[in-house]
Amino acid sequence: ANAVAGAADCIVAAERYAHLAASIRSDINRLLWTTSSPYVYNAPAVAPFGHYRSWAGGHGYFELDSNMLCVLYGIATPAQSRSITAFVFQHQSRLLGLGQANMVPAKVLYGDYDPADYALKHERLTNGAYQNGYWPTVGALAAMGFASVGDTAEARSILLALAASIARAGD
Fold it and tell me: C-alpha angle 6/10/11, rounded to 5°?
């Protein structure tokens, strides 16, 4: 009897967590999904496309890491995932450093953060520094995102570039 009661409790908990997950997914899509152009600083402007903006309110940057996390965790629908990965593929030179010598995939966002957004939080924010720099972990997220939508060729390109950057650094 105790085993049956314990199993029933697990089912109720699983249903509750599934409901919470669906609610969170819905809220993220409602608050952050946009089909407008992202805010761009220090990069060419881009046409409108579907993506998750960086935060509700304020500038709506295109951040690669948060978009790829939405792809990986199923927050993005297949159509949303295709929109995100198509943009990244189209701008792979800028976002992933692919085709550029000695670049580490990937850049956190398209363009740079406007210093006005971070100057109050950080004493100094320069182009190419910290948030505006290239991060291997973001490259790995991008590779996983491309693999999850079936684009194994792009995932492989990113991983090879990532491996080459690690080999150059001697890590």
Answer: 120
**Mind giving me the DSSP string for 80-139?**
HHHHHHHHHHHTHHHHH-TTSTTPPS-BSBSS---HHHHTTTSS---TTSGGGSB-HHHH
Round to whole Å and give the CA distance between 122 and 124: 5
For the chain, give the mean pLDDT. 85
Q: Of residues 107 and 128, which shows the higher confidence score?
A: 107
Secondary structure class of 54 (helix, strand, coil):
coil
* Nearest partner of 60 among 28, 33, 38, judged by Cα: 38
**Centroid of chain to Cα 12:** 33
The predicted-structure confidence for 128-137, as pLDDT tens digits, reads as follows 555 666 778 8
From the list 31, 36, 28, the residue with the least C-alpha distance to 62 is 36
Report how far residue 37's alpha carbon sits from residue 124's, in angstroms, rounded to the nearest whole number. 27
